[in-house]
């Protein structure tokens, strides 16, 4: 990996397209350009569990935010780079649809509640609307 290279970076439970701004042997600093997969909601140490001390609302990294990613979680990216707002909209919709497919599962219910808190923030920050996602 080298500075300026466009990559796919996996961080925690999200996936991003970005540009390497600092390539290290163990860690790369990546400037986020698009969201490929929105982070899952909840506690990283207890995935898909609801009965945890703190159930996190996990936001996607912001446009042009610089994130540190272990070098082994960075791969070359081929293809067009989607516009950040479009990629975020798609990633949130995909996560919502995945969770809504299991409406009775406790993890899905809790995650959808967390996502409904994040959506108004994204709407305010990026002017994105999700007409297919109920706000209440």
TrEMBL record:
Q: Which domain of life is it from?
A: Bacteria
Q: Could you tell me the keywords of this UniProt record?
A: Kinase, Transferase
A GO molecular function for this record?
kinase activity
In terms of Pfam families, this protein maps to: KapB (PF08810)
Looking up InterPro entries in the UniProt record yields: KapB, KapB_sf
Protein name as catalogued: Kinase
């Amino acid at each position: 990996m080298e500075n300026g290279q466009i990559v796919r970076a996996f961080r925690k439970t999200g996936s991003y397209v970005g540009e390497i701004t600092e390539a290290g042997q163990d860690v790369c600093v990546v400037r986020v350009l698009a969201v490929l997969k929105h982070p899952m909601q909840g506690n990283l140490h207890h995935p898909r569990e609801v009965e945890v001390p703190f159930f996190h609302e996990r936001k996607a990294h912001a446009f042009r935010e610089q994130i540190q990613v272990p070098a082994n979680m960075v791969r070359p990216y081929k293809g067009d780079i989607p516009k950040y707002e479009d990629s975020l909209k798609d990633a949130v919709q995909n996560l919502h649809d995945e969770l809504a497919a299991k409406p009775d599962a406790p993890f899905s219910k809790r995650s959808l509640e967390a996502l409904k808190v994040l959506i108004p923030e994204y709407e305010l920050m990026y002017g994105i609307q999700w007409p297919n996602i109920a706000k209440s």
